[in-house]
Specification:
By secondary structure, the protein is mostly beta strands. It is built from no helices and 18 strands.
């Protein structure tokens, strides 16, 4: 049976929540109703993270994906992050030849950090993105859209500040190389963050 999720939250909280598997590039956002689907998840056991600016990241452990589906039910509860004023945020829009690019993958990594990324998100239907809960410091922002482009930018983040960084890609960008790779059987994680 499919994985299902529920949360007691006010209606504005349930939309645009990043839902992702930490340490991977498997990520999506909840829609205006709080619904989300993570597609092409390889079989296995995962942690699942839920994050939104100004709220503590919520984690669910041991989500099992097999036989094309995930199975379990969990309660999701996002709590206001009392330390939000100590963090910075990066926002902007991703454009290709002046047109918004939805579902571009954005990963930000603190300069000198060896981890995959400090934060990860995807751009919305209009190409807008938001990376929040970042400690002050210097970062590299990596923007990727499979088959279209990969670009990286350097920036600084200030405590309590918002760094605006629009990403404009010109049409002369060469498409990413796409190679055919055999992948393990994959499943789907589907759920909803409901409002009350």
């Amino acid at each position: 049976s499919p994985q299902s999720f529920a949360v007691a939250a006010t209606a504005p909280l349930n939309k645009n929540v990043d839902v992702y598997i930490p340490g991977s590039t498997i990520i999506t956002k909840t829609d205006k109703n709080g619904d989300f689907v993570l597609l092409d998840v390889p079989e296995g056991k995962y942690d699942l993270a839920f994050s939104k600016a100004g709220y503590q990241t919520f984690m669910i452990s041991d989500v099992i994906v097999k036989s094309g589906q995930a199975s379990a039910t969990s309660e999701i509860g996002l709590k206001v992050d009392e330390n939000a004023k100590n963090y910075g945020m990066v926002t902007g829009q991703v454009l290709l030849n002046g047109q918004p690019i939805p579902n571009a993958l954005l990963t930000i990594r603190e300069v000198g950090a060896k981890a995959i990324g400090t934060a990860i998100t995807v751009s919305d239907e209009e190409g807008f993105y938001e990376l929040s809960n970042l400690l002050p410091g210097d970062y590299t922002l990596i923007i990727h859209r499979k088959g279209l482009f990969t670009q990286s930018l350097s920036m600084s983040v200030q405590a309590g500040g918002v760094t605006s960084q629009n990403v404009s890609i010109a049409g002369s960008q060469k498409p990413d190389a796409v190679s055919e790779v055999k992948v393990p059987q994959k499943g789907t994680i589907r759920g909803q963050i409901g409002g009350t």
